[in-house]
Amino acid sequence: MNELRIKRAYRAARISDGARILVDRVWPRGMTRERLRIAEWLKEIAPTADLRRWFNHDPAKWDDFRAAYFRELDGKHQEVSRILELLEDGSVTLIYGAKDKILNNAAALKEFLEATLRECEMAAAPDITGTRTILRPGASGEAQ
């Protein structure tokens, strides 16, 4: 599998980053598109403004933030699928603007995507005919 990483928007872009996807709802202050070198801006995959404001990067709220954000991500199949498609083609780096390198939406999104990939791998089991049944990310038993 290709590598999935996170990186702060203010760090220099590298070739090894692969496809750089901005996953914040708000454009990073003072950054140009040329400097960011992003392949895409998936602002729809970012936490809602209400959730982001509530969390306010408070470490005491991290677990509750992750749980609430994961519930939001469960309803964002198109955006999640887009990142997974890019990951099939090569490495992907999720770009974020937050100062906290550990407790941020990109870290939570990376965790969600990795769990989704594990679920898909476990759910991809041979059926009677020897073909594979693959479940949609976030689906529960609904074959695609």
Oligomer: single chain
Task: List unreliable stretches of 5+ residues.
Answer: 132-144
Strand content: 5-15%
Give the overall shape, derived from the CA principal axes.
globular
Average pLDDT works out at 88
Q: Looking across the biggest beta sheet, what order are the strands in? A: 1-4-2-3
- Count up the helices: 5
Main sheet?
Answer: 4 strands, parallel
Structural class: alpha/beta
CA radius of gyration is 16 Å
The total of beta strands comes to: 6
Give the helix level as a range of percent.
25-40%
String of helices and strands: EEHEHHHEHEE
Distance between the termini: 21 Å
Please give the structural blueprint.
Elements: E1 4-8, E2 19-22, H1 33-36, E3 40-41, H2 49-55, H3 62-74, H4 77-89, E4 92-96, H5 105-123, E5 125-126, E6 132-133
Parallel strand pairs: 1-4, 2-3, 2-4
Antiparallel strand pairs: 5-6
Helix pairs in contact: 2-3, 3-5
How would you describe the overall organization of this protein?
The protein has 144 residues and is of the alpha/beta class. Helix content is 39%, strand content 14%. It is built from five helices and six strands; from the N terminus they run ββαβαααβαββ. The chain has helices at residues 33-36, 49-55, 62-74, 77-89, 105-123; strands at residues 4-8, 19-22, 40-41, 92-96, 125-126, 132-133. It has a four-stranded parallel β-sheet. The chain starts with a strand and ends in an 11-residue tail after the last strand. The relative contact order is 0.21. Residues 132-144 have low confidence and may be disordered.
